[in-house]
Design a protein that fits this description.
With 229 residues, this protein is mostly helical. It has two domains: 99 residues, Methane Monooxygenase Hydroxylase, Chain G, domain 1 (Up-down Bundle), CATH 1.20.58; 95 residues, Methane Monooxygenase Hydroxylase, Chain G, domain 1 (Up-down Bundle), CATH 1.20.58.2140. It contains ten helices and no strands. Helix 2 runs antiparallel to helix 4 and helix 4 crosses helix 6. The longest helix has 43 residues. The chain is elongated and about 110 Å long. The chain starts with a helix and ends in a 12-residue tail after the last helix. 28% of the residues are buried.
């Protein structure tokens, strides 16, 4: 039994180390998710310096998270860790596309391919949010540019026809992205038609105001049309 106690003591040390690493990783994952969320909020507000600060913090947290789990690959590939890194991808790609900057690669962000693609899928929702903010002020070519990115992302995601065990549930995210894109396209179309209608009314109003015949007719007393006879 003395030998068994030595064995179990060794197992207990392993479990203690794993538990400590897990708890530390959970805390880091929460911090990383928060930094990414703040970066996205900043880019929507056009606060460039704030955005860059949060992206830098997120990058440092992602590096620390990876390093801390180097000896625990099963914890690194656990859901909460990859979810936090997915948020890291979403924040970086969202900020890059909105700012019209070069797109980061999975290698550049040091993330797994499936994590990158799932983060890319969630970018679609943030681009829709940006487009709706733009459309509040009327139709804009900027909205069309972002819709083009949304279409491009979907066209790539839909080709990733692999089992969910490989892509970590990408198919569901792809279906959701398609729904978001169709709604956004409808919103942009509605806004564009409104813009065309406004322009047509303005042109008609300008023509009527510049027409001397209509101008003379407009000077008559509308309450007594026979007054001029």
């Amino acid at each position: 039994m003395h030998k068994l106690e030595q064995i179990t003591d060794g197992i207990r040390k392993v479990f203690d180390a794993r538990t400590s690493a897990r708890d530390h990783a959970l805390a880091q994952a929460r911090q990383l998710t928060r930094a990414c969320s703040l970066a996205i909020r900043a880019v929507h507000r056009d606060e460039l310096d704030v955005m860059n600060g949060h992206l830098l913090e997120a990058s440092q947290l992602a590096d620390t998270l990876r390093d801390s789990l180097a000896n625990f690959p099963d914890l690194f590939y656990a859901g909460y860790t990859q979810d936090a890194l997915k948020e890291f991808v979403e924040a970086n790609v969202t900020c890059a596309l909105i700012r019209n900057e070069p797109l980061q690669t999975p290698e550049g962000l040091v993330v797994e391919p499936a994590t990158y693609l799932n983060g890319l899928a969630e970018v679609v929702g943030e681009l829709r949010r940006r487009i709706l903010d733009i459309l509040r002020h009327g139709y804009s070519q900027e909205a069309e540019r972002l819709l083009g990115y949304m279409d491009e992302i979907y066209s790539v995601l839909v080709t990733m026809d692999y089992p969910d065990a490989i892509t970590n549930g990408l198919r569901r995210q792809t279906d959701l992205a398609r729904s978001i894109i169709e709604k956004t396209r409808g919103d942009i179309t509605f806004s564009l038609r409104g813009e065309h209608l406004t322009q047509a009314i303005s042109q008609l109003s300008a023509q009527l105001n510049s027409d001397p015949v209509n101008g003379q007719a407009g000077s008559a007393n509308p309450l007594n049309p026979k007054e001029d006879h």
